[in-house]
Amino acid sequence: MPTPPKPVIAFQGLPGAYSHACCLSAYPDMDPLPRAAFEDVFAAVRDGLALYAMIPIDNSVAGRVADIHHLLPRSGLHIVAEHFLRVNHHLLVVPGTTLSDLRTVESHVHALSQCRRIMRELGVRPVVTADTAGAARDVAERGDKSAAAIGSALSAEIYGLDSLRANIEDEEHNTTRFVVMAREPVSPRTDVEAVTSFIFRVRNVPAALYKAMGGFATNGVNMTKLESYQVGGTFVAAQFYAEVEGRPDDRPLAYALEELRFFSHEVRILGVYPAHPYRFEARRRALEAETRVLP
Question: Which pathway does the record list (predicted)?
Answer without folding.
Answer: Amino-acid biosynthesis; L-phenylalanine biosynthesis; phenylpyruvate from prephenate: step 1/1
